Amino acid sequence: MISKDQIPKIKDQAPIDWQNVRRVLVVRLRSIGDTVLSTPSLIALKRFIPNAEIDILLEDWVAPLLDGFEGVNVVRVGEGNAAKLKAANYLRGRKYDVAINLHGGTTSSFFIRATGAKYRIGLSHYRYKRFYNRLYSSSADFWHSDILHSAEQQLAVLGFAGIPVDDRPKSLLTVTKAAIERIEHRLADSALRTPRSEFALVHPAAAFATKQWSTANFARTIEFLNEKGFQAVAVAAKHEAGVLDELKRESEVPIITFDDLTLPEITALASKASVFVGNDSGIAHIAAAVGTPTVVVFGSSNRNHWRPWTDAPNEIVFESFPCQPCPGRICAEFGEPKCILSVTPSAVFTALERILASSKI
């Protein structure tokens, strides 16, 4: 049960009556990484109101990522206006007491308003402020810092609303039994010595060239890991299959590759890996969320905002430039992404050696 002294009062706004909240919606649209980094907020919410129903609205393609996540119902929304209207009508019918937006964009604000929830929660910079009746200043105000991780920014929304978040829960994903069974079958059919062999999970793809370390460098890293006794399993999306083909051509050692795994299967694969190495991406966040030791190569993106959010051993490898972070679609400063191009294989090897040593692998 929640005691009244657990519920801090927010200046100029009456506190939310959490003791009588029975149904909550969390809205977190967009990417794999965004979804993984919403799980600390889900954890904080579940433990504070354990008897309430908690739904999270996710885009259809990323929703399987939270398969099996205990105590949370996933509501999916597809592409196109018809799908969005259908989702909005469903949300309206759920009669939520509280609707919390962890995103703040136009579409997510539309869904918050559609719920008709008694408390509609967001931050003051969100689109369509009139759709909310509980707007808080900023995550920087809550944490008293301008340097924040994405997970902390989302937790701040809950913190302002009276939910304890000071321990900053780490990201967490559930590994389903069905996904483990499918992955073990795929590994058994691959060139891996046995499904239980020690292997490193590698993700050599990225959304932009400014975030994608060279394939040749990943090949050298795989050769380094092979010398340490780890086989390499590399993953990418179907449209990135060319990166995997190039990786196999570049490498002097065999590599198992998959470009057709579902998100639950990637989660299961990451949970079986001894170590992860890859670019700053959603796959890196998946690995961190299942407790796999990680080494992540950073280029243009914000390292403070997107580093692994985990208690598992992890390191980020980067070269500092005054122009970092940047939007990343192009390199406006140099014409080529020197930030990611300047990261050397030896720097990644050193990070891997520390991670392997600290993990006692």
Describe the overall structure.
The protein is an alpha/beta fold. It has two domains: 157 residues, Rossmann fold (3-Layer(aba) Sandwich); 183 residues, Rossmann fold (3-Layer(aba) Sandwich), CATH 3.40.50.2000. It has 14 helices and twelve strands. It has a six-stranded parallel sheet, with helices on both faces. Strands 9-8-7-10-11-12 form a six-stranded parallel sheet, with helices on both faces. Helix 3 packs parallel to helix 4 and helix 7 crosses helix 10. It starts with 22 loop residues before the first strand and ends with a helix. The relative contact order is 0.11. The N terminus is likely disordered.
How is the topology of this model organized?
Layout: E1 23-27, H1 32-36, H2 39-48, E2 53-59, E3 73-77, H3 81-94, E4 98-101, H4 106-115, E5 119-123, E6 134-136, H5 139-143, H6 150-160, H7 177-189, E7 199-203, H8 215-227, E8 231-235, H9 241-250, E9 255-258, H10 263-272, E10 275-279, H11 282-289, E11 294-297, H12 303-306, E12 314-317, H13 338-341, H14 345-359
Parallel strand pairs: 1-2, 1-4, 2-3, 4-5, 5-6, 7-8, 7-10, 8-9, 10-11, 11-12
